[in-house]
Backbone:
């Protein structure tokens, strides 16, 4: 996971990639709220087709999409299985005390579809098509209105960007310290409880010391460059919404409206 | 509101938390992640405010879709049954930091008990979050309580072990940095 600064970002130059990250953020949240209302097969299908079109547009290989489903796959399967058995109704198949009903199957499938679509939506709009730094920038500008009531939007986004930049270093550092200490005889993966605890302490102490050093150096570097918060700070890449952003947002919201219409107005 | 020193410290520890989600140490039955350990140490060593902000920034990063959680990140993580444990880090950091600042003599045992208190708070948040999700019908918590009790027993033992490690590490760190620990 050395490439954490890039995350799962899949480089490309599609219309979704080029969109303003703030718009993508809003769209994906609107979409996700919308998905929660869906129950019928038709709205689900329409929405899934829409997502397929987007995936084709972004040229993201399907493998990447499946990879993004992986963390929550267990829950999807779990929700499906639990729903399968926990409904009463028309019996489909039964084994001893476990009975699969038609209603259970339907609600299990619905739950699985809902969760998968949620994740694919957020992957297509955010994780796979937006660089993490862009996400942090977007967060700052979304939280900006909160600055009026004293919420430190700029500082939070600054911390996010700095933290993101340091994650690979700290992972490497931890790895190095672990190897160095075990070459000196520290045991943290074998032996009794006390020996393991000692071994862990011998890793943690130098790790925190080195973090302190890093933070101290960073603070000095920031002060030397006269960093003083958001006041008068300018950006190299200013986020600016252009016409395709609005058009894309319009199209997405239209699709959402159609899907919700199909859901609530049954023919 | 924040000095650049605060920003630097909070960011570095946020990064450490994110790194901790990926580092696993082999341990009987369940592998240990270093993340809880980092939270425990940060809370006792950095104080309640800075450690709680570190954890909050970490959670915000993950929810915004930055890949800092154990398996990526994204807003949908709120439906993960284990998300409550992550939320629990915030009150737990506040509690442990505050307690550690307000105890008189900082011994191994007092640090350990504060760590255990923090761990218990994390579990309270984690378990009630699970039940909340189950109650709202979005995710089902299994009724196979046997498996779950076993899971809890093992992880709680591991976390009590971690509290001891954290307490020992904090004592060593305090003697290495007599000043840094009570900045705030």
Residues:
């Amino acid at each position: 996971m050395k490439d954490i600064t890039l995350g799962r970002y899949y480089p490309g130059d599609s219309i979704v990639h080029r969109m303003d990250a703030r718009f993508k953020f809003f769209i994906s949240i609107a979409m996700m709220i919308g998905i929660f209302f869906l129950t019928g097969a038709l709205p689900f299908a329409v929405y899934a087709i829409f997502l397929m079109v987007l995936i084709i547009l972004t040229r993201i290989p399907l493998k990447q999409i499946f990879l993004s489903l992986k963390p929550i796959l267990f829950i999807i399967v779990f929700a499906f299985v639990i729903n399968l058995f926990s409904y009463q109704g028309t019996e489909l198949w039964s084994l001893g005390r476990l009975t699969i009903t038609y209603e259970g199957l339907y609600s299990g499938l619905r739950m699985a579809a809902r969760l998968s679509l949620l994740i694919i939506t957020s992957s297509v709009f955010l994780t796979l098509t937006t660089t993490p730094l862009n996400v942090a920038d977007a967060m700052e500008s979304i939280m900006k209105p909160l600055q009026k009531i004293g919420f430190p939007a700029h500082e939070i986004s600054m911390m996010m960007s700095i933290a993101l930049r340091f994650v690979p270093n700290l992972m490497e550092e931890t790895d190095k310290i672990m190897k160095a200490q075990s070459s000196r005889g520290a045991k943290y993966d074998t032996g009794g409880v006390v020996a393991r605890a000692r071994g862990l302490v011998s890793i943690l102490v130098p790790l925190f010391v080195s973090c302190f050093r890093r933070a101290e150096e960073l603070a000095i570097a920031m002060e030397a460059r006269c960093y003083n918060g958001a006041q008068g700070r300018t950006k190299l890449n200013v986020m600016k919404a252009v016409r395709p952003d609005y058009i894309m947002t319009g199209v997405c919201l239209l699709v959402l409206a159609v899907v919700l219409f199909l859901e609530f107005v049954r023919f | 509101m924040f000095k650049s020193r605060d920003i630097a410290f909070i960011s570095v520890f946020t990064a450490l938390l994110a790194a901790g989600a990926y580092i696993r140490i082999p341990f009987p039955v369940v592998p240990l992640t270093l993340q809880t350990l980092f939270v425990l140490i940060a809370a006792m060593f950095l104080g309640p405010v800075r450690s709680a902000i570190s954890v909050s920034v970490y959670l915000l990063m993950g929810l915004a879709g930055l890949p800092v959680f154990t398996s990526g990140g994204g807003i949908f993580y709120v439906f993960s049954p284990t998300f409550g444990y992550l939320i629990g880090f915030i009150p737990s950091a506040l509690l442990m930091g505050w307690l550690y600042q307000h105890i008189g003599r900082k011994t191994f045992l007092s640090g350990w008990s504060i760590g255990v208190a923090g761990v218990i708070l994390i579990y309270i948040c984690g378990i009630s979050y699970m039940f909340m999700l189950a109650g709202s019908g979005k995710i089902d918590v299994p009724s196979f309580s046997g498996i779950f009790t076993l899971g809890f027993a093992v992880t709680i033992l591991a976390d009590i072990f971690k509290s001891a490690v954290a307490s020992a590490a904090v004592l060593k760190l305090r003697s290495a940095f007599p000043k840094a620990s009570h900045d705030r």
Summary: The domain at 4-176 of chain B is CATH 1.10.1760.20 (Arp2/3 complex 21 kDa subunit ARPC3). The CA atoms of residues 37 and 162 of chain B lie 6 Å apart.
